[in-house]
């Protein structure tokens, strides 16, 4: 199981990386915009996440044409060896993904919604696909079955399914139960995954008992 922070909120993400709680970070233009950031901030984000211990840093390329998308992807790939370039799973995106793979750049095809797209991505040999679980459910799909099917189809390939748009601890746990081994979620969801009220009660009781058992002077 590998968990990633789906966030560009540096102050929230760096402690998780420094404490070794997540393997890396994923972002996209919408996530950057949420924190008032843009493409010009990507080199700094790479450096900060890298210094804090991220194994993999997923930054997304943009471009209105295939050539522009490829050029931006190559710019991002040059940041360093921890980069996995995210490219949208459009027809241009598939073509750019292939070119990047030829150049030994690691690639994630993002916003994958169908099993057909997942199948095509695996045939190219991309490193990851990212289905958006919450958005699949929003659109009335059986998101769990769809993601489970992608996981099953890709299990015999080198392409991993890294599920995004995971909005609650329960969603993460349900995905894990259905064979998902790579999940990215926003920091509050990750933090909530570590918490259970019964554990909190038990931990408080341990502290009370330990304090009461202290030898008196
Ligand atoms: O990385 C995917 C994420 O940006 C989408 O999440 O919750 O807006 O569907 P959400």
TrEMBL record:
The keyword Cytoplasm appears for this protein: no
Keyword Transmembrane recorded: no
The protein's name in its UniProt record: Transaldolase
Keyword terms, alphabetized: Schiff base
Coiled-coil annotated residue ranges, if any: none
Species whose genome carries this gene: Herbiconiux oxytropis
InterPro entries reported in the protein's UniProt record: Aldolase_TIM (IPR013785), TAL/FSA (IPR001585), Transaldolase_AS (IPR018225)
Biological process according to GO: carbohydrate metabolic process
UniProt xrefs under Pfam families: TAL_FSA (PF00923)
